[in-house]
Amino acid sequence: MSTASAPTVLELREITKRFPGVLANDHINLDLREGEIHTILGENGAGKSTLMSIIAGLYTPDEGEIRIRGQVVQFSTPREAISQGIGMVFQHFMLVRNHTVAENIILGLPGSAVLDLEKIHQEIQELSDRYDLHVDPERNIHELSVGEQQRVEIVKVLYRGARLLILDEPTAVLTPQESEALYRIMRNLTQQEHSILFISHKMKEVMALSDRVTVLNQGRVMATLQREDTSPEQLAAFMLGHTTNPTTDAEANELPCTEVVEEEADVPTAPEAVTVNPTILELRDVHAVNDLGHPVLKGISLELRENEILGMAGVSGNGQRELTEVLAGLRTYTSGTYLFEQTPLQRLNVEQMINRGVGYIPEDRKKFGVAAGLTIAQNFLLRNFGNSNFFWKRFLINRGALQRYGREKMEAFDVRAPSEKTRVGLLSGGNMQKVILARETSRARRVLLACQPTRGLDIHATQFIRDEIGRARDRGLAVLWISEDLDELLLMADRIAVIFDGHIVGTLSRQEATVEQIGRMMTGMTLETAVPA
Fold this sequence. Notes:
Layout: E1 8-19, E2 22-33, E3 37-42, H1 48-55, E4 63-68, E5 71-73, H2 78-83, E6 86-89, H3 101-106, H4 117-130, H5 146-159, E7 164-168, H6 176-191, E8 195-199, H7 203-209, E9 212-217, E10 220-226, H8 232-239, H9 249-253, E11 279-289, E12 295-305, E13 308-313, H10 320-328, E14 335-340, E15 343-344, H11 350-355, E16 358-361, H12 365-369, H13 376-381, E17 391-392, E18 396-397, H14 399-412, H15 429-442, E19 447-451, H16 459-474, E20 478-482, H17 486-492, E21 495-500, E22 503-509, H18 515-521, H19 527-530
Parallel strand pairs: 3-8, 3-9, 6-7, 7-8, 13-20, 13-21, 16-19, 19-20
Antiparallel strand pairs: 1-2, 1-4, 4-5, 9-10, 11-12, 11-14, 14-15, 17-18, 21-22
Helix pairs in contact: 15-16
């Protein structure tokens, strides 16, 4: 049903927000209608997160006004936004893992010291049933899958009375089946007169779900379009700041890759030769425990080969992080065999693996990938203290040489920042990831461990990261590429392994793998049972 005649529930008029040296939002006008899914598109650094934070009460605009159903409102805290029926579901969940679903949902709500848990459980169950969210109020968060945790986040904002939901990259960590379930939930919410602001970089879901799409570039609104009146090519052009629409196939082919037009993208393709490349790294029946001492890797066997990308698919939390930590020397394995170029490794440490040529792009780029308080140039020194070019007499840093190196890498990897002296913590996610990639692939390398390297990035940064990792593979690196984006793995990987509950369920060549088959294996089905009869 069309929402064109539906009442307006949210209006932004001339919203402007400045940070030191940055104009994040530049006189933005936007409206949201009742029962509408309105998608916000834009490159990293385009101002999407700032704008959503203003609507959710996390930031106060410097100029402009917000209207809720025609009434001017001012938010100085998220609680004030919630009181107006606005709830935000963040990409990184805000849940306490050792508490129950019910405890997380009511956390922070005003009320009496004595809680009527039976009544709360009943209210949550009724809300869950009404919207087909299917959450058990008595289960602990750490027992839930990622998709279930996301449903808890949605129930949490609905329990607080939200009629307007902001969903920030909601499918970034979901399997295809969980994503489809979320799509049904979103449609169900809008049918019950809720409104959704939807942030996504996946063009297929944008075109499938949106009623309207607003594109931001450098803090400004480039266009607001009805879904049926636009195309992925047109949206990609607006995202890059183009003010004219692509009108020919030749022009469309010059646009950056999206999930819809990826087949035409200039991505280094996997070698078609059937010869087996030399094995650089091998695990045989490796076991390891997590930070709580519980088994997390339960007999992992795999090979990383020269000139090859091994993609790894799996729902987040099935051992991917611990596996890369073992491979990078950050975590000790308890049993099994770890061979690096046919040499068994026993006492692993980070320095040893760096010296052997292992590069590591961690899943959480902000927490583990960079030192946010250091400059871009200084971040290139991390994991490279053995480089004598960066030091005077072995212990004094040669700042001139380090800064020249930083400038060279900024240019080579298209890192967009005022200078190499800019603090990394001020960069957008895409530029931060480029710094990490430049650092981890610029030295002599044998292996690259890439954990979710394009998660949360815009199509321009995603394409750049894919290109660079593809070139690293072509230079001879053995690459482990962990991703929950199955289209990406099918595009980039030579082989795809599927992990579930600390086990490798099966490994497929790219030619024989399908999204449906991999999706079933991600739920624990074996290779044989995942193949349709």
